From TrEMBL:
One of its GO terms (cellular component) is cytoplasm. SUPFAM superfamilies: Class I glutamine amidotransferase-like. This is Phosphoribosylformylglycinamidine synthase. It comes from Teladorsagia circumcincta. InterPro entries: Class_I_gatase-like. It comes from the Eukaryota.
Length: 117
């Protein structure tokens, strides 16, 4: 992960509570057991409440600190779980985000009517 900042912090604690209550915390930093973590290397920037990404209320917009564009291949991960590695699987879980975006753009025909495609 390349960053010297980028961690989620909240001047007003009500913001974090609001994000929690509305289901807008999209991704959290977790340890090897899938448990939320505040510890390095699992939470590399010390983001409060282990928040790695938040989304808009309608779910269409994602604000994310981990550089998924820099870690979609398994060799790009410093801490890649051994049990995930196989000779035929060279991609990391982040690739699914890009595959989903591609599928949505190519399959979502309603965008033609709004002039985006």
């Amino acid at each position: 992960m390349r960053n010297s900042s980028g961690r989620f912090t909240y001047r007003n604690p009500n913001v974090l509570e609001s994000l929690r209550n509305s289901g807008q915390i999209a991704v959290r930093y977790v340890d090897g057991d899938g448990q939320q973590s505040m510890l390095y290397p699992w939470n590399p920037n010390g983001s409060e409440d282990a928040v790695a990404a938040i989304c808009s209320q309608d779910g269409r917009h994602l604000a994310m600190m981990p550089h998924s564009d820099r870690s979609f291949l398994s060799w790009q991960w410093a801490e890649y779980p051994v049990d995930w590695k196989t000779s035929e699987n060279q991609t990391a879980p982040w690739i699914k985000m890009f595959q989903n975006a591609y599928s949505w753009v190519t399959e979502e025909r309603s965008c033609y009517s709004c002039g985006f495609l």
